[in-house]
Design goal:
single chain, Jelly Rolls, eight-stranded antiparallel sheet
């Protein structure tokens, strides 16, 4: 497995490097360039995405599972097929209540992830 390269046109999942973030979360960097990044986050039941903020706009697509998401102080349950918008600087986080996968899109790309 290899790390995804910036501007790589074709990114096959089996060639991406899983990054164990600990506490039941595994991240995979998918396709990205300077302005946009796609990231897969696999959560075990009970795993927590701690409250945080960053200077990137982020859209999250719930590929599978059930999550309790908090965005700017408001908490809601989200499931497969739901999407969430987190504008830059907004505090957000989640708790996974049923194991699943989140697909995150960032603008601009997260340099701290590579």
């Amino acid at each position: 497995m290899e790390m995804t390269k910036k501007g790589q046109r074709w990114v096959h999942h089996e060639n991406t490097l899983p990054q164990d973030l600990g506490n039941g979360v595994v991240r995979r960097i998918l396709a990205y360039n300077d302005g946009l990044m796609c990231v897969e986050n696999k959560f075990e039941q009970g795993a927590v995405g701690s409250l945080h903020s960053h200077p990137h706009t982020q859209i999250t697509y719930v590929q599978s599972g059930v999550f309790e998401f908090t965005i700017d102080g408001e908490t809601r349950t989200v499931r497969q097929g739901d999407t969430l918008l987190k504008e830059d600087g907004v505090v957000h986080g989640c708790v996974c209540t049923e194991a699943g996968i989140l697909l995150d899109i960032f603008n601009p790309m997260r340099e701290d992830f590579v």
